[in-house]
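hey so u asked for the seq, here:
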Amino acid sequence: MLDTTALTDLQTREVMGYASLCEGMKAILDLIADARLHFGISCYVPYPSVYKEMYEFASRNGCDREVVAKIDTWLVKKSPDRYRVSVTSQIFHEYVAYMRERINRGMGVAEDAIWEAATECLFMENPQNKKKEYKEEVEREVIGGIIGKFRNKYRAALRYGILDSAPDIDVLILAKELDAAVIASDYGIEKWAEQLGVRFVPANVFPMMIQEYLKHLPENENEPESGNKDKSKEGPSGEIEFI
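ran it, structure tokens below
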């Protein structure tokens, strides 16, 4: 079960030796393709929440259509059954979405206060007619940097270690439903995966695990052989057990 961070984690790209986000996403998706073809390992993504997040992430960062095509081809899209999983999924899902909204609303209020206080203090002794002249430059050069630092500290203090988006909870619900391992670099997902009894794999370890599988392919096996799998290694769904 892939969270968006399974494809976008910076540490994973550094370990794999890719400087660009798009190259890193392609490399991970190629490994997923090899694992699917050779071992029958299926990587799922909650639809539409996490799938949409991945798609938008690739688009915003200028990735070409090949990245989206790989996402569509090699990741299995599935909507989590929030009503039948043996946790109060729908209530939990709504609560997380509500909590994210409230956190962001609080951050917005604090940001507005920073803008207003900084601007008023700066121009307290200046003539009113000069305020517009300098306002844009000051906001860009001074206040914008302060806002950026505030956002990072705010997220670290309030959002780190909690489930703060609907896609996060979709990842856990669908993993619980399918008895799948979760791949992510999100501490909140890791923490709640442990609470729900769901297997968790750090995003920066996942590509190396696939590479380790592929290293042990028979030398003469260039293409996957259908109907020739070792049934003793298959999971309940007929797919190879992973992790």
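The CA atoms of residues 47 and 79 lie 5 Å apart. The chain has three domains: 4-78, 89-159, 166-216.
lmk if thats what u needed
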